[in-house]
Amino acid sequence: MNAIPARLDHLVLATPDLAATVADFTRRTGVTPAPGGVHVGLGTRNHLVALGGTSYLEIIGPDPEQPRPRGPRPFDVDTLAAARTVTWAIASPDLDAAVARARSRGYDPGDVRPMSRRRPDGTLLRWRLTDGDTQHPSGLVPFLIDWGTSPHPTASGLPGTPLLSLTATTPAPDEIRPLLAALDTGLHLAAGPVGLSFTVDTPRGPVTFG
Fold this sequence. Notes:
Elements: E1 8-14, H1 18-29, E2 34-39, E3 44-52, E4 55-62, E5 84-91, H2 95-104, E6 111-118, E7 124-131, E8 143-146, E9 163-170, H3 173-182, E10 188-191, E11 195-200, E12 207-209
Parallel strand pairs: 1-4, 5-8, 9-10
Antiparallel strand pairs: 1-5, 2-3, 3-4, 6-7, 7-8, 9-11, 11-12
């Protein structure tokens, strides 16, 4: 069994059709993802599933109730032909220090910017994350996230499918490993086309998503 990466906050399963992907996840696992909230102005919304501890899965896609944003939607959901695990995030309680440390080690995780969304129960969540053109384009190197004093998404009693493994393939594993080390985390890497997959334990047995 592959080790779960240190400080895993969440996995990002992006999709061009949120309702269809949530229905597919429910059919395959027997667990229905919970509505997360709307990213106002970005044109997306999400559903969430707990993965154990303070880790969770974010299923994110276009929000048909919002007008189309001026720029591209997050995680390039408009360019996807099907649902795909596009990246992951690690928790960083001191985000600015973590960014400075990574840069001193030769990897720039990107600029820090604030975000927010409101849960269906009205609770406002605020967080900061790294986001920028300097992040590795493969999605295999995680972005950093800091929830500050905001409630963590897993604190709201999400439905759960415990994470069994997270794996990745890349044509150049030795290129990715130093970048992961710069962020004080790791990921099981194998040679192959760029891809990220995870396996969860469910009432219907282990299920893998790519």
